[in-house]
Design a protein that fits this description.
By secondary structure, this protein is an all-beta fold. The protein is built from no helices and 19 strands.
Length: about 210
Amino acid sequence: MTLNTPLHCHLIEQSDYLRMPWKNGLGETLEIQRHDDEQGLRFRISQASVNDHGIFSDFSGLHRTLVLLSGQGMTLSHRNANNESVEHALTAPLDMACFAGGDHTHASLTKGRIEDLNIMVRDSDTLATVHACFAPTALSLPSKNSLLTGFYANEESLLAFQIDRTGDTETRRLPAQSFMIFSANNNELESLQVMSGSGVWIDILPR
């Protein structure tokens, strides 16, 4: 739904996410946002449940940021094209790992099912800035050249917006696992804060 406000933001709830099968056929993804152009996929934001240990799908040409949302955690083991290895241990909500989509990546669950948020961008011309946010905290304003700027609410969260034109502060309560998109062309937003809850701030930019 689009909020009736000069803030020009758009809230997408989890029930509106598109269900897509995994590339490797071992599960499904809730697709939150994606953009394709003549070169193919430029960026994608999605949420998924991982129920067992396993190999990640090959997304060569894309850079990935994976954020742990819930569960007891997991360890990601990567091996790149030069046969170099690295591990990421995600143990607490909003821990994250950044890696190349073409790496041979294996996930080992610590103790049972987890949920994660996956941000993928085309490595050749696109960059994703991703931050874990715990209230109370200030958020960056959308960049003028952003392709997409948004906040994923990992739990019910309260955002406060200060309007430059009036000096007023407006608040919006986001349901858990919803995603709010902010317009890069909004000149009236002076500041933005997470007053309660937690989530992930995502800014996708041309490289």
